[in-house]
Amino acid sequence: QVQLQESGPGLVKPSQTLSLTCTVSGDSISSSTYYWGWIRQPPGKGLEWIGRIDMSGTIDYNPSLKSRVIITLDTSKNQFSLRLRSATAADTAVYYCARDRGYGDYPGGRHFYGVDVWGQGTTVIVSS
Amino acid sequence: DIQMTQSPSSVSASVGDRITIACRASQDISTCLAWYQQKPGKAPKLLIYAASSLQSGVPSRFSGSGSGTRFTLTISSLQPEDFATYYCQQAHSVSPLTFGGGTKVEIK
């Protein structure tokens, strides 16, 4: 059974870098064909996609965050990480790491297989 | 960005009711759509992928339909454990992947 677990500071000062790590168990990120990504949820609000990465080197970021965000893989530790620089109060949220199963093509169209495994989420507060 | 508009934003219903949640995309997304259920303090759970395929382990009372720009999630007979918030997500365009605003299903 695949499990994901977020870790990192729960409190970040404004203008500093928010850094989180997701540890994957039950699957090898280096041998799988999935995307590994981050999604966040501000208090009382909906879900916001941050970005994702796969083993082929494909990295997709939300354009609204692209100038501040980096997602990386560490296959030796079976982990992936999020770094969001120049944090502000607007970055206060529950951060989820997740496994995205990606796509399948068929004649005339394309399926999306969904985000099927999520971490439990970690709360990050940006405050002085 | 592809905008995903869910309706209604909330619905009050009773155990045993049939409810339908709509999700409209601002442009054609084929079947690049998933539905999630989220309970308070918990991570979202995948219910439906590829617009109409039931995720393994999800009860058959959940079903999804649609393609292009209009999609629906139906719960055929609402159970106590189904009271939650539901989100649709498009993945046709990765700039960015986007979620609907959510539909909260509450007990009448």
SSE layout and pairing:
The complex is a heterodimer of chains A (128) and B (108).
Chain A: E1 3-7, E2 11-12, E3 18-25, E4 35-41, E5 48-54, E6 59-61, E7 69-74, E8 79-84, E9 93-100, E10 103-106, E11 109-112, E12 115-118, E13 122-126
Parallel strand pairs in A: 2-13
Antiparallel strand pairs in A: 1-3, 3-8, 4-5, 4-9, 5-6, 7-8, 9-12, 9-13, 10-11
Chain B: E1 4-7, E2 10-13, E3 19-25, E4 33-38, E5 45-49, E6 53-54, E7 62-67, E8 70-75, E9 85-90, E10 98-99, E11 103-107
Parallel strand pairs in B: 2-11
Antiparallel strand pairs in B: 1-3, 3-8, 4-5, 4-9, 5-6, 7-8, 9-10, 9-11
Please name the defining characteristics of this protein.
heterodimer, A: 128 residues, mainly beta, seven-stranded mixed beta sheet, four-stranded antiparallel beta sheet, 54% strand, globular, B: 108 residues
What would your notes on this structure say?
Chain A is mostly beta strands and 128 residues long. Chain A contains no helices and 13 strands. In chain A, strands 2, 4, 5, 6, 9, 12 and 13 form a 7-stranded mixed β-sheet that branches. In chain A, strand 7 (69-74) and strand 8 form a beta hairpin. Chain A is globular and about 50 Å long. Chain B has no helices and 11 strands. The radius of gyration of chain B is 13 Å and the shape is globular. By secondary structure, chain B is an all-beta fold. The A-B interface holds A 46-49, 52, 60-64, 96, 100-101, 103-104, 109-116, 118-121 and B 1, 30-34, 36, 42-46, 48-51, 53, 55, 67, 87, 89-92, 94-102.
